């Protein structure tokens, strides 16, 4: 079998002092951190759409990526991409991968032809999974690229499109079952609106909920027990998407009785597009018992769109792993690299370098977060900050013994109110120490 990555050897852990660009400095798959191996905590996954189908094109220029499989077309290219994907996962020793249906196989002239194309590639993927031990973290349906979805998919104003979207998801649930997917993701690529002047929002939300209930019912019917996930995003390509952020998505799920079926797949760059930090979105999902998986990337604070850069910000990965450890891990979820090399990083080797950078960044974040939790650094700070609720009138509030009359009576004693400093700068300094010294 030909190599698509210039016969690069499998990347090994060499430690932080290594100068080898094709070695892990922090990611040691079998190293135990906070009671689990790094591999168990992180469950890294390859994003098929960026790694295997990304071209490097942007609104101002054509694609730049040099990919050996691009010398083919149609189904031949799809088959070559499978070979290349499993070669890359072998080089990185990456256990999982993810895909949209249209990433792995081209559309035909009819839905029947499209499904036949999928069946051929799914069979090939299944063979490679069996021989390599790689697993499918999640799959999903691309219901945003084709012009038929101009008005949305499950929120479209066109019933014919709604039916087509249902057929497409039905097929992907069957594919997930066939390949043993551990999760199934719904990303509302065009589930939103451009203007309220021609939009019945309540109607569209009701239809979206109906769609999710039908998907749940069909998965149960065929015995597909994967965790359902929704991936929040505030905008792009729609002006306003219905799964704006974690809080909005959780409210939707609770409103429509879907909160026991779904968890969230949180993406870092989507968080910043919503005006939040990555750790905020993870925290909101965690405290609501709905943190399921993550898309690992980062955005550029100077750019206002979804740049999907490989994650290298250690503050972000540390605080993300802090939430994930407190969550007890990601269950059946994982850390999927929804990230693409920059347009100027166009050689095949850059895919290896970029994944090493991302995997090391999350491994380092895991190490630091575990030490912060072991030393109870932030827990002690938070316990002290809210200590006034541990006794006296504060304890009465928490015990349900207080009411407005008793609180007014207490306040009218006119005892001096003394606030403590939040010491945010000192806390960040401590965080710096841990990142640099652990």
Protein described:
- Helices cover 46% and strands 11% of the residues.
- It has an 8-stranded parallel barrel with strand order 5-6-7-8-10-12-13-14, surrounded by 4 helices. The chain has a two-stranded parallel sheet with strand order 1-2. A two-stranded antiparallel ribbon has the order 3-4.
- It has helices at residues 38-42, 48-51, 74-92, 101-104, 111-132, 159-179, 201-222, 246-255, 268-273, 278-287, 314-326, 348-374, 377-385, 392-399, 404-411, 424-437; strands at 12-13, 23-24, 32-33, 36-37, 44-47, 96-100, 135-140, 183-186, 192-193, 227-230, 240-241, 262-267, 291-295, 335-337.
- The chain has 16 helices and 14 strands.
- Helix 11 (314-326) links the parallel strand 13 and strand 14.
- Helix 10 runs parallel beside helix 11 (314-326).
- With 438 residues, it is α/β, with parallel strands linked by helices.
- The longest helix has 27 residues, at 348-374.
Quick overview:
The protein has 438 residues and is an alpha/beta fold. Helix content is 46%, strand content 11%.
Overall pLDDT level: 97
Poorly predicted ranges (pLDDT <50, ≥5 residues)? none
User: In angstroms, what is the radius of gyration?
Assistant: 24 Å
How far apart the termini lie comes to 43 Å
**What portion of residues belong to β-strands?**
5-15%
Strand order of the largest sheet: 5-6-7-8-10-12-13-14
Comma- or semicolon-separated keywords:
16 helices; 14 strands; 8-stranded parallel barrel
């Amino acid at each position: 079998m030909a190599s698509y990555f210039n016969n690069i050897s499998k990347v090994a852990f060499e430690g932080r002092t290594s100068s080898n660009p094709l070695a892990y400095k922090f990611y040691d798959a079998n190293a135990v951190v906070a009671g689990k191996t790094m591999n168990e905590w992180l469950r890294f996954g390859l994003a098929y759409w960026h790694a295997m189908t990304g071209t490097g094109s942007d609104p101002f220029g054509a694609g730049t990526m040099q990919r050996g499989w691009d010398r083919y077309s149609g189904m031949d290219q799809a088959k070559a991409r499978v070979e290349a994907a499993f070669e890359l996962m072998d080089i990185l020793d990456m256990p999982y991968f993810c895909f949209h249906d249209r990433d792995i196989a081209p559309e035909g002239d009819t839905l029947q032809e499209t499904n036949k194309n999928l069946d051929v590639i799914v069979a090939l993927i299944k063979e490679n999974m069996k021989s390599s031990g790689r697993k499918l973290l999640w799959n999903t349906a691309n219901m945003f690229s084709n012009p038929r979805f101009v008005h949305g998919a499950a929120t479209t104003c066109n019933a014919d499109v709604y039916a087509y979207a249902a057929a497409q998801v039905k097929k992907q649930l069957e594919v997930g079952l066939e390949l043993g997917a551990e999760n199934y993701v719904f990303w509302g690529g065009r589930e939103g609106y451009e203007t309220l002047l021609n939009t019945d929002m309540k109607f569209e939300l009701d239809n979206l909920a109906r769609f999710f209930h039908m998907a749940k019912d069909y998965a149960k019917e065929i015995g597909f027990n994967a965790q359902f996930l929704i991936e929040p995003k505030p905008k792009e390509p729609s002006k306003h998407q219905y799964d704006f952020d974690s809080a909005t998505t959780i409210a939707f799920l609770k409103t429509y009785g879907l909160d026991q079926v779904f968890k969230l797949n949180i993406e870092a760059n989507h968080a910043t597009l919503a005006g939040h930090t990555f750790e905020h979105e993870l925290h909101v999902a965690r405290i609501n018992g709905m943190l399921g998986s993550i898309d690992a990337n980062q955005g550029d604070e100077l750019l206002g769109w979804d740049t999907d850069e490989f994650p290298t910000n250690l503050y972000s990965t540390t605080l993300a792993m802090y939430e994930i450890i407190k969550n007890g891990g990601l269950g059946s979820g994982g850390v999927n690299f929804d990230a693409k090399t920059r347009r100027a990083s166009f050689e095949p080797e850059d895919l290896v370098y970029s994944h090493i950078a991302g995997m090391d960044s999350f491994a380092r974040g895991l190490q630091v977060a575990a030490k912060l939790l072991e030393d109870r650094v932030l827990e002690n700070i938070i316990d002290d900050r809210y200590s006034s609720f541990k006794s006296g009138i504060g304890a009465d509030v928490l015990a349900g013994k207080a009411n407005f009359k008793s609180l007014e009576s207490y306040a009218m004693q006119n005892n001096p109110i003394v606030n403590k400093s939040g010491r945010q700068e000192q806390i960040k300094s401590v965080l710096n120490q841990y990142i640099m010294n652990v």
